[in-house]
């Protein structure tokens, strides 16, 4: 097919066809239409998204017949367009902390959609202001002001910009194997060469140290001062997610706080993946009772319903944005539907004690994995993480892939981590039922036994 020629009639036909299908109830979509959706999705990825995904995704490489095509889900169960079911142990990389389509979150978003899907850009919008107040009450220390965006990457970029404006300095200290996003700013903080090198030169002044080593942070700050380089902030994930659910030593975050105070450097906590109950506390830094200067949020903030992120700071730091509030803006960030979903997500988080559930269920899974590890130490070498941000460390990359592939063929969706291929993440909804956890554990043990 020739894609070099504009065809407005075809564009209208294709857009209308999919809108009509999406508008039908599942009962109204016949088998022929379902098959068309699956097959055309494969072709459209190949021709219009990225052919590389088709070589990477298990939904293509590990599926006999028609590739799996995302279609619907509820709680911790996903269905493809042909009705094939999967237990979701991946949780959308942390999006689905309250589960897929939590009724209270969906209802809040729908109610706001009926009223106004976006804001006027001129009138004061109540939901955004109220959500900021709620988050200010939820966060540690003197966090008071915030800005909402759409992705975790935007939140990190905004935090970097704020830190530079407040301190008047350009440098940052990040960590090896860190994951903070893939825009040019956030990518500069990334601690993995495979994503950095193909892009070429990134932001100057970013230094990387081993995660969990506070002394190395202090040495870098001292060395920067010695040569006249200014460090605006130290940024870290409370628990490194994509590096493999790596938990730092217990004195790490308290020491970072003292070091940053000592040298007048800001401390940024990237809570995009660890925030809102994921690790068994409201925020990851709560494990060590540390209050950062700036906090970044994303993923679960929108309740798995609407894309939502934000960065928050104290009034003292935020003051640099007050003289010209248009220094940092976005047209769609913090829109009313996203804010309604986020407010409902926080209500669900607290009503259902999702953090407590994550702590309890995470400990349960870790205890069962310890038994499996004891039986098969030459396959499963370690278990990392806290709450329901867990990593299964396998002896090599190939073994990890075999486990993921084996579970996928048994109807369980799970995936590796982006910055450490040996580690397979366990990151389900925080309210996942124990019966699904047990099903996963039974299948996991059987896959490892076969390996």
Describe the 3D structure.
The structure is a single chain. The protein is α/β, with parallel strands linked by helices. Among the domains are: 8-62, no CATH class; 104-351, Aspartate Aminotransferase, domain 2 (3-Layer(aba) Sandwich). It contains 17 helices and 15 strands. It has helices spanning 8-23, 31-49, 51-56, 58-61, 91-94, 103-115, 126-138, 152-167, 184-189, 193-196, 214-227, 252-263, 315-318, 336-351, 354-375, 397-409, 434-450; strands at residues 70-74, 77-80, 85-88, 143-149, 171-175, 206-209, 231-236, 266-270, 294-297, 309-314, 380-386, 389-394, 412-413, 415-417, 420-426. The strands form three sheets. A seven-stranded mixed beta sheet has the order 4-10-9-8-7-5-6, with helices on both faces. The chain is globular and about 65 Å long. It starts with 7 loop residues before the first helix and ends with a helix. The model has no long low-confidence stretch (mean pLDDT 94).
List keywords for this structure.
17% strand, four-stranded mixed β-sheet, 451 residues, Aspartate Aminotransferase, domain 2, alpha/beta, 44% helix, pyridoxal phosphate, transferase, seven-stranded mixed β-sheet, Class-III_PLP-dep_AT, globular, EC 2.6.1.82, 17 helices
